[in-house]
TrEMBL record:
Its EC number is 2.1.2.11. The active site is at 186 (proton acceptor). GO terms for molecular function: 3-methyl-2-oxobutanoate hydroxymethyltransferase activity; magnesium ion binding; methyltransferase activity. Coiled coil: none annotated. This is 3-methyl-2-oxobutanoate hydroxymethyltransferase. The lineage of its organism: Bacteria, Pseudomonadati, Pseudomonadota, Alphaproteobacteria, Rhodobacterales. It comes from Actibacterium atlanticum.
Amino acid sequence: MSATAQIRVPTPQDILARKGGDPIVSLTAYTHPIAEMVDEACDFVLVGDSVGMVIHGLPSTLGVTMDMMVMHGQAVARALKHSMLVIDMPFGSYEEGPEQAFRNAARLMRETGCAAVKLEGGVEMAETIRFLTSRSIPVMAHVGLTPQAINTLGGYAVQGRGEDGDRVMADAKAVSDAGAFAVVLEKVPANLADGITAAIPIPTIGIGASAGCDGQILVVDDMLGLFTKFKPKFVKRYGTLFDDGKAAVEQYAKEVRARSFPAPEHIFADQAPEKKK
Ligand code: KIV
């Protein structure tokens, strides 16, 4: 037996079993070093299609492609040792119907080794979720604000206020009944998020929802203060990485211009130093 304890990466079934238990911790990641940074703290890591906005500078998630998700998924997969990998299905890769969704979900699993895929939509996606989950593809659902639908939703507004809450509740119940092992609730009123969490048997993962959800997720670049173009109300910044990086770059530029970098400890002599015996 090895002296090193075996690390057991959670499975979708483990996440499902956390319903009503200790809060599930999750962040997005898109690159290898950030995945290494978040791995130990998280139960699952999502390669979200937010990659398009925070890494590629796109104006929305609509321009994200399968190839982008595969490439970022592979970079993150190589880093994760503790947390489960979930990858977003990008806009246009699953909406045509269950067969198209299966083909693309299978590609994500085959080429990245992810444990599950996430897709947006409620009642209208139930048939697709049922098709995937009955064919060995674990699905995390995503209801409430679904950013791939901004053109039909009319923007990024809170979803499910007042009587509209019934629609979001019906979406959450539909994806749960269809076999999703967890559901992301994005930008919905806290009382609705609590009601959904009480009403369905699968974990709810909140983002702009409620501390009463079964878990939470944030876009990592938002919470690290690395993406600073705008800050949704639901984001708490736990770091100032953009400002810290900018200050470091300015200091480097100053030292290069002053010829104080590289210093003696960064340069090589003509003679190799003698090796210590
Ligand atoms: O794409 C993404 O990052 C997401 C999270 C916001 C849940 O879907």
